[in-house]
Amino acid sequence: MDFYGTFHFPCGEATVTLQDISIIWGLTIDGEAVTRIDVSHKVEEWQHICLDLFGFLPSSKHLKGGHLSMIALYDHCMYNLVTDDTSEVDVVKFARCVALMIIGRIMLPDYQEGSARLIFLQLLRDIDNVKSYSWGSAVLAFLYRELCNVSRIEKTTMAGPLYILQVSLTYGHGAGLNVLAPTEGELTLGVPPVDPDAIIPVSPYGAQ
Fold first, then answer.
1. What is the residue-wise DSSP string for 53-89?
2. Which residue from 31, 40, 119, 128 has the fewest beta carbons nearer than 10 Å?
3. Angle in degrees, 0-180, between the axes of helices 70-79 and 88-102, rounded to the nearest 10
4. Looking at residues 140-158, what average pLDDT do you find?
């Protein structure tokens, strides 16, 4: 990708790149596109799909317009923790729950706060194939779209992966990006300073 759009903030002109997405979150930026048909199911149908892929039948009050409440996912995970005795099938179902929470809450959150879009279940059905998708490209495209939308005068809210924007502004990986992080002497919250000589961090910056 040779061209990146830039956005004007009070701090100046800035942008987030695919490299930022890869370094900060460790997401893949190569592979199949994250795209699927937005199917419409009745509540009962979504319930049985969740039972098949997650291992539990969510209450109808936790399902709305193709979205599943984060509370339902969180409660299921907390009461069905993975142990040494957990079967491989149940481990996969647990992994799908966690993955959907990460996608719906952090990577690709929309305006339905506190819930995740069940359309992503199409991409999580084959858990071994999840890594073949270009999740980083989807995250960046979603962020760019939301930054463009929020520039309109009638817009008052914004969805999308705002945490990636916050981390990018903090560490300043993007081209022409203003670094807003405090200097080493100003750190007061116990956050370790970034090693300027490190080409790639040991773990994604966003995980620190």
1. HHSS---GGGEETTEEEHHHHHHHHHHS---TT--HH
2. 128
3. 150
4. 82
